[in-house]
Design brief:
It contains 16 helices and 28 strands. The chain has a 15-stranded mixed sheet that branches. The protein has a five-stranded parallel sheet with strand order 4-3-5-6-7, sandwiched between helices. A three-stranded antiparallel sheet has the order 8-9-19. By secondary structure, the protein is an alpha/beta fold. The protein is globular and about 65 Å long. Helices cover 29% and strands 26% of the residues. The protein starts with 6 loop residues before the first helix and ends with a helix. β22 and β23 form a beta hairpin. The chain folds into four domains: 225 residues, Rossmann fold; 94 residues, Rossmann fold; 69 residues, Luciferase, domain 3 (Roll), CATH 2.30.38.10; 97 residues, ANL, C-terminal domain (GMP Synthetase, Chain A, domain 3), CATH 3.30.300.
Length: 549
């Protein structure tokens, strides 16, 4: 009989089998699986003794409800982030990812909307938290992680290391369940952040190690989980994107469940290409994760200096943003024995598909769908068959989320039932091609209606990014009297490059239909993106509007 899984218990089982294998490396910290287990158990015990944990079992709740206490993680990358997630799981709490770029209003919204009862935060964020603390009356536990800011403890807060040292390293006996929650807040780049609720078993199987990405072979027992970790790929992965984003969390847990080592660059507040490659060389990591052109291009520029031994690097994983075919070819020319693996998915679907590029055979925007990944028609009534070229909705069935925290209406819209099967349909537009691959065009919420035609920002961005002078680009819309909206490209040029708007227009027209070509171009010193490399379309809209004034 196939078992269902709790992520905390899966980690416990692997740690028992591999106690001395390194699990996390960051700066001078080298934690084995046993040491990570010790620290996550202590955190779980501390949370449990503080009265936090399960309130109501899943069977007594609607799909948009949580019966567990929530622990906000307001942290840069480091061992404390993964300890925070595991400690929450092992105490039957749910962790909440907090974007560390938020200003006071955004931070207040997320902590209130998530109904967080505890927060683990880097000391650097103490002053901002102090500004809004009076409005966060539901947060009863404040754990402050020391950093180089030397900020003093907030009144009533407890030093994180002192908290862990004050309790035994025992796993709380709290009845861990596959129904326990995993919660991930969407980024909010096109709307207010929303908390996506998953059963731990479902997210484990979908995106956190219960299946091998690209192979999609599900584990059926905890013994098999342990066997894959003991006899799996091992090795080390260099984690560049911040853990506050779902894709980074998923990659980290996939690696942990394969018995591999997670390596974090020394610089954890921004992406420093030199620091990344020094860390790669030192730890001889075989895999790195990137987020589109915005991360890969500066890394490639640093690689070309020839200052680093890159011989260990064999896999570059990309997700959450477009990595253009042209840039892939440049990377693979430099690293001819490497492969680039693109993944597609979202907070609401988990992993949906992948595409592997090798030297001389790089492509972008097409994916081999995994089990349950389909394209639904415009009206969400039937599935498209291969070769049905009409635009549809990328959808996922099988292991999908329960819903959105405290939002039954949004839950019903995003997770419809079609022919008796429940699907996750977060809003990505796609076509199912004749060969069975899926062409993903982008999120409908960032599509542009211009003159009655629908244009997808990502499709235009792909075309523009092939220009040799373009380092980065965001495409958005601006109100227009004739067209309703006109397409505007906000462009960051490569260092030392100059280019005319006419040249950019001519280049774009070689790759996309005339109605998709931007009507205006705004050249900026630097494109603003999230720390993971995701596009910030609200910022782009603001820049486009200001350029017209």
């Amino acid at each position: 009989m196939t078992e269902e899984f709790n992520i905390g218990l899966a980690h416990e089982a692997i740690s028992e089998a591999l106690p001395d294998r390194e699990a996390i490396v960051w700066r001078d910290r080298r934690l084995t699986f046993a040491e990570l287990t010790d620290r996550s158990r202590r955190l779980a015990t501390y949370l449990h003794q503080a009265g936090l944990g399960l309130r109501r079992e899943r069977g007594a709740l609607a799909s948009h409800e949580s019966g567990q206490d929530h622990v906000a993680l307001y942290l840069y990358n480091g061992n404390e982030y993964l300890e925070g997630m595991l400690g929450a799981f092992k105490s039957r709490c749910a962790s909440v990812n907090v974007n560390y770029r938020y200003v006071a209003d955004e931070l207040r919204y997320l902590l209130l909307n998530s109904e967080s009862k505890a927060i683990i935060y880097h000391a650097r964020f103490a002053p901002l938290l102090a500004e809004i603390r009076d409005e966060l009356q539901d947060i009863t536990l404040w754990l402050q992680v020391a950093d180089d800011s030397d900020e003093p403890l907030l009144p009533g807060a407890v030093d994180y290391e002192e908290a862990l040292a004050s309790v035994p390293a025992e796993l709380p006996d709290v009845g861990h369940s596959p129904d326990d929650l995993y919660m991930i807040y969407t980024g909010g780049t096109t709307g207010m952040p929303k908390g996506v609720l998953w059963r731990q078993h479902d997210i484990f199987m979908s995106a956190m190690g219960g299946r091998t990405p690209g192979v999609w072979d599900p584990v059926t027992s905890y013994e098999e989980v342990v066997d894959r970790a003991v006899n799996g790929m091992g090795g080390a992965m260099l984690m560049i994107p911040p853990f506050m984003h779902g894709a980074a969390q998923w990659s980290a847990f996939i690696l942990m469940h394969q018995g591999a080592k997670i390596v974090i660059p020394d610089e954890n507040r921004r992406m420093d290409p030199a620091d990344v490659l020094r860390t790669l060389e030192r730890e001889k990591t075989s895999t790195i994760t990137v987020t589109g052109n915005a991360v890969m291009r500066p890394l490639l520029e640093e690689m070309r200096t020839g200052a680093y031994d890159l011989s260990s690097l064999s896999i570059i994983g990309n997700g959450s943003a477009v990595l253009s075919a042209e840039l892939k070819e440049q990377v693979l020319d430099l690293l001819p024995n490497a492969l680039i693996n693109d993944s597609v998915g979202s907070s609401e679907t988990g992993a949906q598909g992948s595409h592997l590029s090798a030297r001389g055979a790089a492509a972008t925007g097409r994916f081999g769908p995994g089990p349950g990944a389909v394209v639904l028609d415009e009206d969400l009534e039937r599935l498209h068959e291969p070769g049905h070229h009409a635009l549809g909705w990328l959808a996922q069935s099988g292991w999908v989320p329960l819903g959105y925290l405290n939002d039954p209406d949004k839950t019903a819209r995003t997770f419809p039932v079609v022919d008796g099967r429940r699907y996750a349909v977060p809003g990505d537009r796609a076509r199912l091609l004749a060969d069975g691959e899926v062409e993903v065009l982008g999120r409908d919420s960032v599509s542009i209606n211009t003159g009655g035609e629908k244009v997808f920002a990502e499709e235009v961005e792909k075309a523009i990014s092939t220009h040799p002078s373009v380092r980065d680009v965001n495409v958005c819309s601006r109100p227009h009297d004739r067209w309703g909206n006109e397409i505007v490209a906000v462009v960051e040029l490569a260092e030392g490059q100059t280019v005319s708007k006419a040249d950019l227009t001519e280049h774009a027209a070689l790759h996309i239909a005339g109605y998709k070509v931007p009507k205006d171009w705004v050249i900026v010193d630097r494109i603003q993106r999230s720390p993971s490399g995701k596009a910030d379309y609200r910022w782009a809209h603001k820049v486009a509007a200001q350029s017209q004034q």
